[in-house]
Amino acid sequence: MSAEATNPATPGSVAGPAARWRARIDLRRLGRAALLGPAARDRLPDAIGHVVDAHRAHHPSADLDPLRRAYVLAESSHRGQMRKSGEPYITHPLAVTLILAELGAETTTLTASLLHDTVEDTDVTLDQVGEQFGEEVRYLVDGVTKLEKVDYGAAAEPETFRKMLVATGSDVRVMSIKLADRLHNMRTLGVMRPEKQARIAKVTRDVLIPLAERLGVQALKTELEDLVFAILHPEEYEHTRELIVDNASRADDPLAEIADEVRGHLREADIPAEVLIRPRHFVSVHRVSRKRGELRGADFGRLLVLVNEDADCYGVLGELHTCMTPVVSEFKDFIAVPKFNLYQSLHTAVARADGQVAEVLIRTHQMHKVAEAGVIALGNPYAPAADDPADGERVDPTKPGWLSRLLDWQEAAPDPDTFWSTLREDLAQDREITVFRPDGGTLGLPEGATCVDAAYAQYGEDAHACIGARVNGRLATLSTVLKDGDTVQLLMGQDPASEPSREWLEHAHTPAARIAIQRWLATHPEADAPQERDRRSTAPRPAPEGAVAPPTPDVVVDQPGATARLAGCCTPVPPDEVTGFAVRGGVVTVHRVECAAVARMKSGGRAEVGVRWGDTSECRVTLLAESFGRPHLLADLTEAMAAEGAEIVSATIEPPDRQRVKHSYTVTLPDAALLPGLMRAMRNVPGVYDVSRAQPQTPGA
After folding, report:
1. pTM exceeding the 0.85 threshold for the entire prediction
2. CATH number belonging to domain 250-376
3. 242 tagged catalytic
4. pLDDT tens digit string along 29-60?
C-alpha cells in the first residue's frame, strides 16, 4: 500500500504550491528525527511539530496527548521499516496526518491516521489500539485496514466497490484517511515502474477522485486530478504547464487588476471582505482551454471573495452587479441551495471593457473551509455538540448524504452487477441539478434525471405508488426530464399493492431509482405478464388489441370451466349490459354490449357467450378525464375521487396541450352503484370539463 518513496521528480508535482515542496523537505527532516527515537514521556516529539501546528490552527484547545502517544506507538512499531526511497516508513503516516491536519480534521481522526498502517504492517493488534486509544480510534483503524485489503486494481470487478463500502462502514472519517493516504502515495509515485504508475492512476481517477468530489474534499480532489493528469496524459499535461508558465511571465495581469477594482468597490460599500486570486489547477486550465480555445489572462484563475456573514455574500454580489458588468448567465446560488457534498458559494462573473471576463466566487470563511475540506472540516459528525438539543443527539451532516445513500444501494441491489452498473453511471456524473419540493425542501439529482428519479429520491421504495407529477405547476409524465431549479410535486396513489413499471427503468438515471425498480421486478417475475405490464405507465397509451383486465369474481359465464376477464377496451361494470367472446386458454372476455368491438366480432362470425353479473358488487373501471391545466388540479381531482370511495389502481397523464390535459384512471369501487356519483364528483372539480368511461376507437377481444 505505502511502500512508495518520496521523489521530487514525480510527474505532476509542479501542480502543487511551493509549500508542498517545503513540506516534502520537512518530511525528510522528520524522518531523521524519528530515527533518534521517541521523545521523553509527556513531551511532544519534534517530529510531529508540523502536525501539531496545523492542528492547533484549526483546534486551538485540542488535547494533544493522544497525538503524542499515537506517534510514539507508530514510530516504535514501524522502526526499521523503510520506504523504497530509503526514508523511514514513519514519514508516510506523518505525511498523511499532516494532510488531514491542514484540512482541519479533529484529533480522533489524526490519531487514527498516525496509526493507520500499524495493524496491517506491524505486530500491533486492534485490541491494543482499542485499549490505548479507545473504541472510536480502534473502529477507524479497523476500517482503514479493511480498505487496504480491497483489490483496487480490479476496478472493473463489481464486487470490489461493494467490499470497499462495507469496509468503510458509515463513518466518513475512514474514507477521509484513505483519500489522504492515496494523495501522499500519488505524490511519491515516481519510483514505481511506469505501468504500475498508470494502473494506480487509473484506479485513482475512476474510484477515489469521484469519492473525494462527493465527500466535498476539493483540496484533495484537485491535487489528485493533477497528479493523475500528469501520469496518464503527459503530453497534454506538458502543454498545459507551458500555458501556465507563459501566462505567469506576462507583465500585465488582468485578474489582479480586476481584483483591485473589486476591493475598491467593496471598501466604498463598507463591506469587510478579503479578495484573493485563486489560480486554476492544471486540469481546470486544460478544461477551460478545450472549451474556450485560446486563453486570456483572466482565464487562468478566479477571484475568491471571503466575508464574515451569509448576508455579506449577497451584499458583495449586489455591489459587483451594480458597479461592474455582470455576466448573468454565470450566476449560481449554492448558498440558498447547497450542493449535495455540502458546498456553498455564490458564483458570478464580471466583464471588463476589453472583453476579459473574471469568474468570482463569494463565500464566508466557514463556507470556504467546508468547500476545501468537505466532510473533514465538520470534525466528528457523531459526537454531541455543546449547542445541540438537550437530548445530546447530533444530526450527522453526511446523512442523508452520498456515502450513506451508497451504503443503502449496495444493501438493496439484487446482485453485484446491478449495483456496479448503476454506481458507475452515478460516478460518471460530474454535474448536478437541484429541484424544489412544494414543502420547501430540495432534491439533488444528476443532470438528466427524471420525475422517476425524483420520486425514488424523495420516497425510496414507497415511490412504487407514484402515479404522476406536477413540474412547475403543470401536470407531467414520470418520464419528464427535470431542469435545475424546477419545482416538482409527486402524486402518490393510495393502493398499497402499487407496483412500478418495467418501462420506468428506461427513464431512471439514479442508482436509487434503478436499484429499487430492479429489485422489485426481480422479486415479482409475474410482472412481465402482458396484463400486468400494461397496468402502470409513464405515458398514456391505448389498450392493445386483446388487452384484458384481471379476473373478476363478478362474472358468471354460460360456458363450463371458462374463466371470465373484463375487456380492457370498455371495462364493463355492474349494472352494464354485457356479452362475452371466447379467446385462447379457456378465457371469455366480457364487453359492454355497446362496445364497438362487439359489433366488429359479431360481423366477423364470432359466437357470443352468455355472461351475467354475479352477486358481488365490487368493480374496476377506467375513467377518462379532460381538464384545463391549473395549480393543484390533480391533487383536487384525486382527493375528490378518494372521497367517493374510489381506490386508484393506476393513472396516466398526457403532457399538456394548449393548456388542456387528458387523464386516465383505473379505479376500484366497493360498489358499482357508486360509479355515477364518482363521475359527477370528478366533473365538479374546477377545471375538469369532461369525464367518461374508457372506450378506444379500435378495440378487440
Report:
1. no
2. 3.30.460.10
3. no
4. 544 454 444 444 567 888 899 999 999 999 99
